Amino acid sequence: MARPKTPILSPERIRRAALDLVDRDGLEGLSMRRLAGELGVQAASLYGHYRTKDDLLHDIANEIMEKVDVSGFEGGDWRHGLTVWARSYRAALAAHPHMVPFIAMGPGRREASLRRADAVHGGLTGAGWPPRMATLIGAATKYLVVGAAINSFARGFDDDVRVYLDRYPNLSQAHRLSEHAAHIDGDGFDLALSAFLDGLADRFPPRSD
């Protein structure tokens, strides 16, 4: 049987190629025409699976959000639930930082995002937080996660020691930060998350409506 001249397309293959393109060149580097070129097909072939680029991006965002773990709320411990959610949320976003601005725009109608928002809100209210506070806690956690995922503190420093010598005496070791970026960024996030949770426990103890 002769091989087809045109590569066989599937939604999964299209999403995988599109995410590879975004990971490599950013959101601005993705177009249906360019994606078609990557797949070895005509752009018209993609529209049978996805009407618009945004439809495609929503499905990619949905797949990324499927990796976010909200099972920590099942035992009724809100702090454990938030910790598991926040860490897995950051990991899912940090794996694809160029997708973060699109995902961060909101859940919209994305099923995976809405299921997780529902689980987080239900876990917090079920643990005793008033609904308004549950909403604010979810929002604040998202701010923390998105900020950590979209940027690296440590990689923002130059690795040339001469940049800091003499002029910035308190940054004499700053040239080493990028070398240890993964640990610094991870530990910095955990510190911020822990301080946030401690503050919640101290300032806003759960209570019944």
TrEMBL record:
Identification of the protein by name: Transcriptional regulator, TetR family
Q: Which PROSITE patterns match?
A: HTH_TETR_2
Q: Which organism is it from?
A: Marinactinospora thermotolerans DSM 45154
Q: Which residues form the HTH tetR-type domain?
A: 8-68
Instruction: Name the DNA-binding stretches.
Output: 31-50
UniProt keyword terms in alphabetical order: DNA-binding, Repressor, Transcription, Transcription regulation
| One Pfam family it belongs to | TetR_C_1
Q: Which GO terms describe its molecular function?
A: DNA-binding transcription factor activity; transcription cis-regulatory region binding
